[in-house]
UniProtKB/TrEMBL annotation, chain A:
Source organism per UniProt: Marinobacter algicola DG893
Keyword match Hydrolase: no
Record-given protein name: NADH dehydrogenase subunit N
Transmembrane helix found in the keyword field: yes
Pfam family, one: Proton_antipo_M
Organism lineage: Bacteria, Pseudomonadati, Pseudomonadota, Gammaproteobacteria, Pseudomonadales
BP GO annotations: ATP synthesis coupled electron transport
Localization annotation: Cell membrane; Membrane
Annotated NADH:quinone oxidoreductase/Mrp antiporter transmembrane domain residues: 126-424
TM stretches of this protein: 6-25, 32-51, 71-96, 108-125, 131-149, 161-182, 211-230, 242-266, 278-297, 304-324, 330-351, 372-391, 411-429, 450-472
Family: Belongs to the CPA3 antiporters (TC 2.A.63) subunit D family.
Chief place where the protein resides: membrane
Membrane topology, from the record: Multi-pass membrane protein
Any one GO molecular-function label of the UniProt entry: NADH dehydrogenase (ubiquinone) activity
One GO CC term on file: plasma membrane
TrEMBL record, chain B:
Bilayer topology term: Multi-pass membrane protein
Keywords carried by this UniProt record: Cell membrane, Membrane, Transmembrane, Transmembrane helix
InterPro entries documented for this protein: CPA3_antiporter_subunitC (IPR050601), NUOK/Mnh_C1-like (IPR039428)
Species this protein is from: Marinobacter algicola DG893
Transmembrane region(s): 26-50, 70-91
Residue stretches in coiled coil: none
Protein's name according to its UniProt entry: Multisubunit Na+/H+ antiporter, MnhC subunit
Pfam families the UniProt entry points to: Oxidored_q2
Top-level taxon of the source organism: Bacteria
Region (Disordered), start-end ranges: 96-122
This protein's GO CC annotations: plasma membrane
Sequence similarity: Belongs to the CPA3 antiporters (TC 2.A.63) subunit C family.
Length: 505, 122
């Protein structure tokens, strides 16, 4: 039992409840408390990362109930990595939000913290139904955040987003019911033990359940047939919300990694590698679709939203190999893409504020104020997202390319990923050169002021890709250890035999 | 009992999916509600159907699995909150799109009534 595990859940929960009651408190107080909560959460996440790096599993069993009977929180390297990634992104998005976005609603900070709460539960939980609850917590907060802001443009994409996710939740419940009806457990470690022992006649049920889980996680992650809600929803959200949502698709990817390596991984007997043969072609088609969308994007925000889909395709292609090398490459790319895409959403919003009625549309307009600063940020973000040297995206994509082993995989992955990257590069160069270089006469009335909180948070997120290059050694070492830990599922199932009571004397 | 139960779940899910594919928000909300009813019943049945059983061992001759009951309770609460939210959101969409209750916020191209004809009808 380790009580630190509850910290990333309790901190945003308490902070969020406080915010809910302080809607009418002075905004300075609300902002200070909200940022303090996010900073505390980052500290807790880093402590957990250091704890988890010794490679053992730490448990927190609610009410001291021995798993599989009670709900457990499980901390391993993957969970800690996701927590830190989310906390870093959230901190910068939050700093950006206090630059003015939070003024239009009294409950912005509360919703933001509840969103983090849901994300953290999802990363820590070791129970399939608890994962469903975590998804609902983060979704209901995200519905509120998505609708946040002025104007009516968000209503229709928001409605689509909500209805789709409710349908997704229904499918999730059906899948959970199917799996429970056969195995009699929903604890992930216990499922990993029980799935290989499933009787022959019940296999189709579990298989259907597992595939439906893949559909749900695919909907969250935005794999191709389920990705068309994303560009509309993300490009209409306010900038810090869109940037935070960069991590929302990663929750789906996290769930795919967790469930399909642990429960339906190589040890799962008849069901080993369930769905993985579907995932690889779907991932490549998603990637292609994302590139086509990016080429046709009419505004910077749409372009970045399609970049989210491109990165989902790239990630899932690497994950679908089901190898240690593939997973560790995917984890490295995951960090890079989440932070950079988040940063690009913020930069797109800053550009929007400087261009008057041209907004962030990719059209010629009068020369923008602060052109050098913003264009350098955009250039760095684009280079990191496309995967050109010297920034971290290059190393991430290199690792992914190297992780393909069999000949057909190499042929498909290399050709799709490299040609895709080339066209993404064209999309970014076109957008950048039109927005920053092709100017017409005229001037813009009252461009938005670049306050420190706006410019610092946007540039910090983008420059994390430089930090990742400097720390590439330790980060890729950690990613490799994480992947190795993930694929050694017997250690995870050992948590079932750990006694919960009387352990610490 | 199993057959009746299965037919009910199937009917609820089928009508729910059909209604969700409609173009206006009200049928979609109804469809979501029916789908969640169907799903809740399905989840309940995942602990097997038992007649006259209690979820406590020893209190009756047979016992029923308590876990799906707890799961269903959670799912009902969450589903209820989400439905309330969708209703509010559809009303907001109605207000934001000039009293148009289409899911896309506008009348689909092929259903649009030509201007003069619309004038003649009113």
């Amino acid at each position: 039992m380790n009580h630190w595990l509850t910290a990333p859940i309790l901190i945003p929960l308490i902070g969020g409840i406080l915010q809910a009651f302080m809607g009418y408190a002075p905004i300075a107080l609300r902002r200070t408390l909200a940022i303090a909560t996010t900073v505390l959460m980052l500290v807790a996440a880093i402590v957990l990362l250091v704890l988890a790096d010794d490679g053992s599993y730490r448990l927190y069993a609610f009410g001291n109930w021995q798993p599989p009977f009670g709900i457990v929180l499980v901390l391993d390297r993957l969970a800690a990595l996701m927590l830190v990634m989310t906390a870093v992104l959230a901190l910068f998005c939050h700093i950006y939000a206090i630059g003015g976005t939070d003024e239009s609603s009294r409950q912005f900070h509360g919703l933001f913290l509840f969103q983090l709460l849901g994300l953290n539960i999802a990363f820590l939980t070791g129970d399939l139904f608890n994962l469903f609850v975590a998804f609902e917590v983060l979704l209901i907060a995200s519905y509120g955040l998505l609708m946040h802001g002025e104007g009516t443009s968000r209503t229709v994409p928001g409605l689509h987003y909500v209805v789709l996710n409710l349908a997704g939740s229904a499918v999730f419940l059906i899948a959970v019911g199917m799996i429970y009806s056969v195995t009699g457990t929903l604890n992930m470690a216990d499922l990993a033990v029980k799935i290989p022992q499933v009787a022959e006649e019940n296999l189709p049920l579990v298989k259907a359940g597992g595939m439906m889980l893949l559909v749900v996680f695919g909907l969250k992650a935005a794999i191709l047939p389920l990705c068309f809600w994303l560009p509309g929803a993300y490009s209409n959200a306010t900038a810090p919300v869109a940037a935070l949502f960069a991590v929302m698709t990663k929750v789906g990817i996290y769930a795919i990694i967790r469930v399909f390596t642990l429960i339906f991984g190589s040890q799962a007997g008849e069901l080993a590698g369930l769905g993985m043969d579907w995932l690889f072609p779907l991932a490549l088609i998603t990637l292609t679709m994302g590139v086509i969308g990016a080429l046709g994007a009419a505004s910077l925000r749409k372009l970045v939203a399609w970049q989210v889909i491109i990165s989902v395709g790239t990630l899932l292609a690497a994950i679908s190999f089901g190898t240690v090398a593939g997973t560790s490459a995917a984890l490295f790319y995951l960090l890079n893409t989440t932070w950079v895409v988040g940063g690009l959403f913020l930069v797109a919003d800053l550009v929007d504020g400087q261009r008057g009625s041209a907004q962030d549309k990719i059209v010629t307009a009068p020369r923008i104020a602060n052109r050098t600063f913003l264009s350098v940020l955009f250039l760095m973000g684009a280079v990191a997202a496309v995967g050109l040297p010297p920034l971290s995206g290059f190393f991430a994509k290199l690792l992914i390319l190297k992780s393909a082993v069999t000949e057909s995989d190499v042929a498909w992955l290399w050709s799709v990923l490299l040609i895709g990257s080339f066209f993404t590069l064209i999309a970014y160069s076109r957008a950048g050169s039109i927005v920053f270089w092709r100017n017409v006469e005229g001037h813009i009335e009252e461009p938005q002021k670049l306050t420190p909180s706006l410019s610092v948070s946007a540039s910090a997120l983008i420059s994390l890709s430089i930090v990742m290059v400097i720390l590439a050694g330790p980060i890729s070492r950690y990613a490799e250890d994480t992947a190795a830990q993930l694929h050694d599922t017997s250690a995870y199932t050992d948590i079932l035999s750990k006694p919960m009571v009387g352990e610490e004397k | 009992m199993e057959l009746a139960f299965a037919v009910v779940i199937g009917a609820l899910t089928a009508s729910g999916v059909y209604l969700m594919l409609r173009a206006r928000t009200f049928p979609v909300v109804l469809g979501l509600t029916m789908l969640s009813y169907g799903v809740n019943l399905f989840l309940f049945s995942s602990g097997r159907l038992v007649t006259g059983g209690q979820p406590i061992i020893g209190s009756a001759e047979t016992y029923s699995d308590p876990l799906p009951q707890a799961l269903v309770l959670t799912a009902i609460v969450i589903g209820f909150a989400m439905t309330a939210f969708v209703v509010v959101l559809s009303l907001r969409s109605l207000a934001d799109n000039d009293n148009d209750d289409h899911v896309n916020g506008r009348v689909p191209e092929q259903d649009r009534i030509p201007q003069e004809q619309e004038g003649a009808n009113t």
